């Protein structure tokens, strides 16, 4: 069975404003890398819009309606906080980015494919249930997890987040829910300042912090020694990956020294566990990564590992 690649051109129509690191060129770079011959067996699907019902499984109505009501005209950008902007195309992009995860879950849970990758933006893991934050409007990974439970009847879903920043939004959405496991490695200190190892939810949250300058070996060690064993003992029925590539040594927003080979290794380990515990079901969605060259190479390596592992 092949890999599903879900994307939508509307995700290129979202802007946080001129000079912002979370820019359309990121997605263009990823999609260009995925045009390579080696990915030609992937099934491509256009992301549907997430429905109100799907969004409301994570966000209160005021958040959903508030985001969808913001439609700046022309080239105008409305800043929601110091980092997060919305342009004319942002609401549509956010609906497609969340909808991509839902469509990927549908395909994987129906057994049409074992793995899926959502090449989308805006990212989602900083968006808290009741507020946008850190370049994120809707909590894409948490919405996908809840959809798997509500529509496909899954009991236990794991969210694995290796973006260099703590996925505070995903954690906030699931930390009181023992049926969803949240695992995150991230640089500390770093934005957004949450993700202390003492934050454990109801025993379903595992945070592993890495000091600025930590390299791929340190990154692999926290996954090998602490986070992947937690994934195995949870026994997920589906693994959702928040795939951010800003832990890369070249990334301008953080100071870790992770390389493509380390992301590849982790992806293969996640797939190995999924193969053993849940029929190989892995749905990955793009989060951060701000050096275009490193992002494109890392995302391509990640998808290669999803395809081959
Ligand atoms: Zn990030």
From TrEMBL:
Highest rank taxon of the organism: Bacteria
Protein name: Acetoin utilization protein
InterPro entries linked: HDACs, His_deacetylse_dom, His_deacetylse_dom_sf, Ureohydrolase_dom_sf
Gene3D superfamilies: Histone deacetylase domain (3.40.800.20)
SUPFAM superfamilies from the UniProt entry: Arginase/deacetylase
MF terms in GO: histone deacetylase activity
Family: Belongs to the histone deacetylase family.
A GO biological process held by the record: epigenetic regulation of gene expression
Boundaries of every Histone deacetylase domain copy: 20-306
